[in-house]
Amino acid sequence: MLYPTLLLASLALVSCDVSHLQGQYEEHETTPAPPPKPYVFSYTAGRYPGHTDRQHTEVSDGSGVVKGSFSYVDPRQKVRTVEYVADKEGFHPVLSDEPPEHPADSESVAKAKDRHYQLYAKIAEDHAQHPYPDAQAANAPRESAAVAAARAKHAQLFRVIAEQHARIAAEREALLREEEEKQHLQELGQ
Questions:
Q1: What are phi and psi of 47, to 5 degrees?
Q2: β-strand 90-95 against 54-60: which pairing, if any?
Q3: In angstroms, rounded to a whole number, what is the distance separating the alpha carbons of residues 136 and 3?
Q4: What's the pTM?
Q5: DSSP 29-71
Q6: Could you report the per-residue pLDDT of 55-104, keeping only the tens digit for each?
Q7: Exposure winner among 13, 40, 135, 149, fewest CB in 10 A?
Q8: Is pLDDT larger for residue 153 or for residue 1?
Q9: Which of 73, 16, 65, 66 lies closest to 41, judged by CA?
Q10: What is the DSSP letter of 2?
């Protein structure tokens, strides 16, 4: 029931008295700034009916400051909540609690991180030696025989349909001209 309260608070912000500002705008002969457009939204979702595994709520005061939170179920089946503020300084998230590193996995995690950084360094070195356009050409997707056949079939069907549409358009144009001529003759005969 937070939504109706926030909605009423938002409406109160929008309906505040701004008559004292009118003289200020008239004195400076500038276009007044548009009024703030506050909003509130909230949703809850799940993977199937009756199931909830994520939710999101957000409130904006209309002046560029957005506050909100979202929750989700992590792979360990623990609910994680992130509260955030977004303003002109950026996006500032705060996680409810950091997932701990499992002590049994700490050695394997360290090895995996080390391997990741080694591969990253190797890829960065390869990219430095071979600029992106060359790498892109070498890794460009190639058309298989099945895709080429499907593309050719599609092009043939497109040509047939285009010819049929052109024929139908010509027939309709001829019928319209006949109708116009009949109508013109009827008008002359009256």
A1: -85, -15
A2: unpaired
A3: 50
A4: 0.35
A5: T-PPPPPP--EEEEEEE-SSTT---EEEEEEE-SSS-EEEEEE
A6: 999 999 888 899 999 888 888 888 889 999 998 888 888 887 765 555 65
A7: 149
A8: 153
A9: 66
A10: H
Quote the CA–CA distance of 6 and 12 in Å, as a whole number.
Answer: 10
Note the Cα 133 to chain centre separation in Å. Answer: 28
Rounded Cα gap, residues 28 and 129, in angstroms? 60
SS3 91: strand
Mean pLDDT of all residues in the chain?
A: 78
Tell me which range, 17-31, 53-67, 167-181, is most confidently predicted by mean pLDDT. Answer: 167-181
Across 175-185, average pLDDT: 93
Contact between residue 56 and residue 66 where contact means Cβ atoms under 8 Å apart: no
pLDDT at 125: 85
Tokens of 177: 């001209």
> Tokens 């909540």 appear where?
81
Count of residues for the chain? 190
The pair phi, psi for residue 169, each rounded to 5°, is -65, -40
Cβ atoms < 10 Å from Cβ of 145: 7
End-to-end, the C-alpha distance of the chain in Å comes to: 74
Encoded tokens for 155: 């092009």
Decide: helix, strand or coil at residue 15: coil
Residues facing residue 70 across a β-bridge: 56, 82
